[in-house]
Structures are given as C-alpha cells and as structure tokens.
C-alpha cells in the first residue's frame, strides 16, 4: 500500500440554521449535518462511508469538494488545501475529485411538472406543449423555489436548453425530486436547500454557485409566499415573512451574485416572479390577499428600478402569472370552478407556461424592465 496521503479531512463541520415551518417562524434550531468528521485516504486505498439516507454523506462529499462551504474544518487533497484554493485552482482540484450521486428517485416516474399520485389531471391540462429552445450551453443559471410547480418547470426547460443549474428550495424533498429529473437529462446541477429570506444563507449559496461554476449567467427568482388571511387577521410575523420571501429575497440574491454578474464582460439575466395579484390586488376568490398583493407589487417596482441600476450589463424582467396549477390552486378550482370563466384561454396555467416566458427572457438581450403577463388572457374584456 502506498503511504502517500491523497485525501486528508480534519474536524469537518457543516451546520445549518433551520427555522420552524409555517407562516410564523419564531424558532431557529441548528442541524448538524456533518459534525467533526476526520478521515485519511491513501493513494490506492478504497474507503467506504456508509450510512442511512439523510445522515449527511452527500453533504460531507459536497463540503470536501467545496461545492458547499463547510462551517469549519480542513480538507487537503494531494497536499493542497482545498478550503483556501482560489477559483481556478479549485476547478482543477474538482476535476480530480468527483461525486457520483446516489439517485434513488430515478426508479420512480414523476410527471413533467413535478406532480405525482392523485393529481394526474394536472399533467394533462393543456395537452402536449411545444418546447421553446435557446442555446444556453456553457451558461450557469440559479433557480429558486425549484421544487415547486413553476420552479421545477423552469429548471427542466433551462436544462433542455443546455444550462448548468444551481437549484434552491426550502423544501429539500421537493428539491431532490427536481434535481433527479434534471440529472436524468444529463445536466450539471447542484442543489442548495435553504431559506431565501435569510440574507447570510443566500450569501453562502451564491458563493457556492460561483465556486462551482465561475460566472453566473442567469438568476431566476421564483420563490414566494402567500396567505388567504384577511389583513386584520394577519400577524406582524406573518406579514414580515411574506415580504421577506417575496421581496427581500431578491435583494439577498442580488447582493450574493450581482457583483459577479457586473464583473463579467457579457450581458446577464435576472428574471423575477411577480403575480397577477401584484397588479390588481388579491381578492376573496384567490389564494392570496392584500399582503401578497403588496409584496408582489413590490417585486414589480424592484424589477423596474433594478433594470435601470444594473444596465447595460444585466437585463432585469418580471413575469406576472395568472392562476397556475399546484395542489393549493387545484383545491381552489375544485371549490370554485366558475373562476375559469375569467380566463379566455379556457384552462388554468401550468408551470411550463411560465417556463417558456423565462426561456424567452434568457434569450432577449434588448428587453429590460419589462413586466410580462402570462395569464391565459385574464385581462381581456
């Protein structure tokens, strides 16, 4: 056995701050995904790291490759400090260290728009859709809320265009499903499950994406939060949560990757997800009311202002979807099918409808500050 140490890991830690779920996030706990792990692998040696699903094996591998920034610890590969290596050197090291991800979801069939099981009707609505394609090979794109109906459809559409992806969602299980679908398409992808309303966490996610890919070409902000509550019944914590997820998250991501985009010689893309309610206000017949409407209107103002501030290097545009099918909107339609009378297109939207607009904005280099309705003709009298 060769005594040369190929990989030396000392006291590696990766801790996540996790906030309680629901509309009110009062409590923050610490999840120790990787806790003081040390190991040494010599050249020619085979080392097995075994554990049940969710025990931290993948997180450990990502930290070793610095696809995620560890909380603390040291990693040396072939006597080179991985933790302090600059971008070019890090890329060279990552070419010599590879992860073959376990993909338990590949044995299951997921619908095109990220749904399975009871809501099969969602998959069929609108029939077979034509693809919109633009060449994004060599382009690196971040997609938030990638586990949801719109975000997953955007991720798949961008993967079909050849983009390399960084996917984010606070729902790790949903995010894993989207990641599995993207990997099946042969796309390079990393997934970062975390809260976009947390400024520090977004800075870490942005740094991870830049360390992995270098230049970031596109940022697709899909993440959002809403509530059917009347404004009088809404607590200040609920109000703040809705605002932070919808609006503050955009600020967080611009701080995380904006400098990288502006430093590039090429033009980049930022695409924000607003809502029909951001233009007209929510009502009792929708899944959102005044709080959501205010936040989504804020997205529109932020989009137009940002388009001016980041020009000419970066284009910034927004999409205003109408009713897009997901489990919540499907339940609403089951109760109030007459709502569809307001949509001349004759059907509710699906994630792929929004994804097409995202792909268009990825291709459009002379469109900025634009707000595009994708709502099945809702505003037609």
Q: Which keywords apply here?
A:
Rossmann fold, four-stranded antiparallel beta sheet, globular, single chain, alpha/beta, 381 residues
Word description of this protein:
By secondary structure, this protein is an alpha/beta fold. It has helices spanning 57-65, 87-96, 120-124, 149-160, 172-184, 199-213, 236-262, 277-280, 290-310, 327-335, 351-363; strands spanning 5-19, 28-42, 72-77, 80-81, 140-143, 164-168, 189-192, 218-221, 268-273, 314-321, 371-374. The protein has 2 domains: 5-96, 3-Layer(aba) Sandwich (Rossmann fold), CATH 3.40.50; 107-374, 3-Layer(aba) Sandwich (Rossmann fold). Helix 7 (236-262) links the parallel strand 8 (218-221) and strand 9 (268-273). The radius of gyration is 22 Å and the shape is globular.
Give the structure's gist in a few sentences.
The chain has helices spanning 57-65, 87-96, 120-124, 149-160, 172-184, 199-213, 236-262, 277-280, 290-310, 327-335, 351-363, and strands at residues 5-19, 28-42, 72-77, 80-81, 140-143, 164-168, 189-192, 218-221, 268-273, 314-321, 371-374. By secondary structure, the chain is α/β, with parallel strands linked by helices.
What is the helix/strand order? EEHEEHHEHEHEHEHEHHEHHE
**CATH topology (level 3) name of the largest domain:** Rossmann fold
Q: How would you characterize the largest beta sheet?
A: 7 strands, parallel
User: Could you tell me how far the N terminus lies from the C terminus, measured between alpha carbons in angstroms?
Assistant: 78 Å
- Spans with pLDDT under 50 lasting ≥5 residues? 19-26, 101-129
Q: What is the radius of gyration?
A: 22 Å
CATH superfamily of the largest domain: NAD(P)-binding Rossmann-like Domain
Structural domains: how many: 2
Question: Tell me, what is the CATH class of the largest domain?
Answer: Alpha Beta
| Average predicted confidence as pLDDT | 84
Strand percentage, roughly?
15-25%
Please report the number of helical segments.
Answer: 11
CATH architecture of the largest domain: 3-Layer(aba) Sandwich
Shape: globular
Structural class: alpha/beta
* Overall strand count: 11
Question: In what order do the strands lie side by side in the largest sheet?
Answer: 7-6-5-8-9-10-11
Helix content percent band: 25-40%
């Amino acid at each position: 056995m060769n005594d040369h140490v190929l990989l030396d890991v000392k006291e590696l830690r990766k801790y996540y701050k996790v906030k309680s779920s629901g509309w009110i996030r009062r409590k923050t706990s610490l999840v120790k995904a990787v806790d003081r792990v040390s190991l040494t692998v010599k050249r020619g040696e085979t080392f097995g790291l075994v554990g049940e699903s969710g025990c931290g094996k993948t997180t450990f591998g990502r930290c070793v490759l610095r696809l995620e920034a560890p909380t603390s610890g040291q990693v040396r590969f072939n006597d080179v400090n991985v933790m302090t290596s600059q971008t070019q050197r890090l890329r060279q090291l990552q070419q010599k260290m590879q992860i073959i991800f376990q993909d338990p979801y590949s044995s299951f069939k997921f619908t095109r728009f990220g749904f399975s099981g009871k809501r099969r009707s969602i998959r069929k609505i609108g029939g077979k859709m034509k693809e919109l394609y633009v060449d994004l090979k060599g382009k690196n794109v971040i997609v938030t809320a990638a586990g949801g109906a719109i975000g997953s459809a955007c991720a798949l559409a961008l993967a079909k265009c050849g983009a390399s992806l960084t996917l984010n969602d606070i729902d790790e299980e949903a995010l894993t499903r989207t990641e599995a679908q993207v990997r099946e398409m042969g796309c390079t992808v990393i997934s970062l499950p975390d809260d976009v309303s947390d400024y520090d966490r977004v800075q870490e996610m942005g740094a991870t994406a830049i360390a992995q890919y270098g230049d970031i070409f596109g940022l697709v902000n899909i993440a959002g939060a809403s509530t059917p509550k009347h404004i009088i019944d809404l607590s200040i914590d609920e109000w703040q949560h809705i605002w932070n997820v919808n609006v503050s998250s955009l600020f967080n991501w611009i701080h995380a990757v904006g400098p990288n985009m502006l430093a590039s010689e090429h033009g980049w893309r930022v695409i924000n997800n607003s809502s029909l309610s951001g233009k007209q206000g929510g009502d009792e017949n929708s899944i959102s009311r005044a709080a959501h409407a205010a936040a989504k209107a804020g997205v529109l103002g932020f989009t137009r202002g940002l388009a001016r501030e980041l020009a000419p290097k970066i284009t910034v545009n927004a999409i205003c979807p109408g009713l897009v099918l997901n489990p919540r909107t499907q339940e609403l339609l089951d109760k109030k099918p007459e709502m569809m009378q307001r949509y001349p297109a004759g059907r509710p939207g699906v994630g792929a409808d929004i994804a097409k607009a995202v792909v268009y904005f990825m291709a459009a280099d002379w469109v900025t500050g634009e707000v595009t309705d994708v709502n099945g003709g809702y505003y037609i009298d």
